[in-house]
Amino acid sequence: MEGNATDPFVLVGANYKTYESAEKKISFWQQIKGMPILSMVILGIIILGCIFAEQVYNHDPTGFYLQNLNQPPNSEFYFGTDSLGRDIYSMIWYGGRVSILIGLLGMAIITVIGVIYGCVSGTANSRVDSIMMRIPELMNSIPNLLLILLLTSVMGTQNIVKISFVIGVTGWCGLARIVRSEVRQIRSSEYVLAAQCMGSGFFHIMIKHLIPNFISTIMFVVVSSIGLSISMESTLSFLGLGLPIDVVSWGSMLSLANKALLSNSWWVIIFPGVFLITTLVCVTNIAYYFRKETNKRESYL
Amino acid sequence: MNSKSMLIEKIVKRTLWFLLSMLLLSIVVFYFARLAPGDPLESYYGDAVESMTSPELDAARERLGLDGPIALQYVKWISNAVQGDFGMSLKYKMPALAVIAPLIGNTLVLGGTAYILVFVLATILALFCAMHEDTWIDRIICKVGTAAYYIPSFWLGVVLVLIFSINLGWLPSSGAYDIGKSDDLFNRIQHMILPLTVMILSHLWYYAYMIRNKLLDEIRKEYVLLAKSKGCTKSEVVLKHCFRNVAPTIVNIMAISIPHVLSGTFIAEAVFNYPGIGALSVTSAKYHDYNLLMLIVLITGVMVVSSSIIAQFINEAIDPRMKLTEVTAWKETPQTPLS
Questions:
Q1: What sections of A189-248 are H helices per DSSP?
Q2: N or C, which end of chain A is more exposed by having fewer CB within 10 Å?
Q3: What are the pLDDT digits (tens) for A278-295?
Q4: A13 conformational bin, left if phi > 0, alpha if psi -120 to 50, beta if neither
Q5: Do A153 and B166 touch (CB under 8 A)?
Q6: Chain A residues touching residue B36 (CB < 8 angstroms)
């Protein structure tokens, strides 16, 4: 570069200034900063342990070791055995599959019903909309547990699909409401109108235009519905209305808790419960990550 | 005068809507119940069904209202129900209303106490957290509260029984009172401690967090600055100014929380074998006792709707801004930490 400060005119050549792109490469550590790493690692370990349960467990999780009823934790049975002589350590890994599967299935059902219902209600005219929103209101005026009890009682013997269905069918109201209010805000945007003018159908608009716009808002609810489904399954199984005792899940293991109380065998109650709660807390922490922080002004206090 | 007539109109509207929804609900439940697997006749008579002749079976069906097409059965049921006859409980072989009547009081006492305690404690906790926003104590309470909320309440109940009644022997583990001590108030309170603890622990943070967030919004308003420059202390500002503005919201939250707290009561009753309609609903679901289950659903619905109407009255009394505005039940429903 030539010229000095006093000279008002500067001779510039072809390479007078070179521009560097402002975008800097973000390092891996910066990317994951703020993510709930601990929860993700713990949840990852639990999920991997459940997937590779065959390698992790040291006894047959469905076997009855009748010589070892109600054994406290020892070197052979790490977490002890229950009143039927089953090894709790093996059952936890094996049963985790069912629990997590129910969590995911429940989430899928809640999301599908909630999103579609919310989109239809949000795009419909106000009369249809107000009728449609009466249904969640009606369902909300009855305690959720009572609705689930009714449905499980009507369904007869439970299996994994049925129980996820019951949990999903009773749990979508909150999500539908959020989706509806989001859709109502964006439904008259130009791009939605343009898409309608070009003749695209409801599902095309929903998938291409509506869902990408509210997905970040509903992520929190969607992820935490996994935890909700898992905990509802365990509650139902504990009450004797969930999975039968021979389908091993964390919930059905805890349905022996009342028997375990009589013999004061704390390990039957504590170990599956600790796994259950750890999973729930991890899922929630991850869900919180998706929650958009509202920009907070400084407090006047 | 005008506002009074509008109020009456609102009540009439709500009552009509309530009756309609109960009617709809009863139709749905009735159809479901009749389509369900498991012959109600069998759960009523047990094995005796197999030795009955077919005219006997028909007579039994007619007596229990199980004959004819479903629509006709429903009309029969509803016309009886209007007169206060909700059919026979198939498990207890008594009129359903007679089975439930003695238990409602227990549930109301347990649920009501828990409800009041939860909200009193939640408000205190929220005020405390709001005054210490973002300090270490607030953060710890937030973390612990969220974790506590996610512990399934039945598990918490079982663990508490394990610790306090089986190993320490301090508190009874089940029932509402010991045999022959039904009039002993102290004995009853003793039996309520554990269920109440479970219900408070599992609901407290959900509501404390909601109220805390409302308070945090409130202390960012301009009038707080004014009050401060006037010379009010921190606690004066929060208690005298902010809390008053948040109070109607708390009442609103209380109104919509009733089904949620009732759900909790049901679980607590089932865990602790507390004789109330919650424990009863679990047993009747197990035994396919639909007449009983239906009555429980209807009674719960009545409790929920009537209490939300009461909440609206209270709101209008304490907050003039509320008048003439429609309070929608779901506006405040927080998809918060928890549901």
A1: 190-197, 202-205, 211-238
A2: N
A3: 888 888 888 888 775 554
A4: beta
A5: no
A6: 153-156
